[in-house]
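lol ok so funny story. i was supposed to be doing the assay writeup but got distracted and ended up predicting the structure for this chain instead. priorities right. anyway since i did it might as well share w the group, maybe its usefull for someone
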Amino acid sequence: MTSIYNEIDLDADGRHVGYLRLPHSVHRSAYGWIPIPIASVRNGDGPVVLLMGGNHGDEYEGQVLVSSLIREIEPQWVRGQLIFLPMANFPAAAAGLRTSPLDGGNLNRSFPGDSQGTPTAAIADYIEHTLLARADYLIDLHSGGSSLLYDGANMLAIEPRDAGEEQRLKSLLAAFGLPRAFLHRENPVHAATAARRQGAVSILAELGGGGTVQARLLRDARQGLLNLFGFIGLLNGPLVPDGPPAQTRFFRVSIARHYVYAYDRGVYEPLVELGDIVHAGQPAARIHFPDTPLREPVTTFFADAGTVVCKRVPAAVERGDCLFHLAEPV
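and the output, tada:
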């Protein structure tokens, strides 16, 4: 039994905006609750989409886009339902942090959650077992956050299990129409796998990052979302565009081969740029040690070939920090 109370009726037609109340008793507020914004635009029967931003609190593009679409989409243009979570992990989003300041929880590593657990675990439980249980699709809008920057607008989806699922998934990704789509393995603690467990199809977007909001990426993601909503029969009317923002190319990412990490604490100097095509053995970055001026920098190398799609933003690094990740064409 969930501890979260929803102020809005998800079965009611029309536009409804309110909060998910997560009880949170603390010194300053004995009977208080955490206000997680939620909205619904519903009109009769049809597809149900959960559109989520703020899964990580320092990823702002999704928060802007989800809250904007709550205001823009009129109920008469909808056949089915859009459920909006602009700040899914509200404590993290309110603090501008990747993880919750209340419990250190990373929402996208917390599924299936625990209804009686920490705030992050309770949010994960509600999303999976209440919201995703009634959804046909999850669209989860991310970015690189404060520490990473993605090259443009990208989509991620779990590798399909059979040919029929592959055809359906690729048609959905093409309708969203961001330039790159990465296929990845299932991870049981991710929202994408929570959606799969509940019978919903998940698409995750990575839209830039670096603690910024880029106008071009917002425009492309907005066009792609509205085109996708039209493609699945959820949305009609003046907001549906003539087509997707781009023709999608499909890539694969391997954690073992395509990620480059720091093994020393220091200041990193990137030796490649986003969008570069690199080969196995090519130098990726140098780690410098300004506190020991006579010490030579350490060079890190790419283990495999691919396109540089993501890089670290802060120059200060510690052992275990991700510097780059690559993707290879499918």
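The first strand starts at residue 5 and ends at 6. Residues 5-252 form a domain with the Aminopeptidase fold (CATH 3.40.630.10).
back to the writeup now i swear
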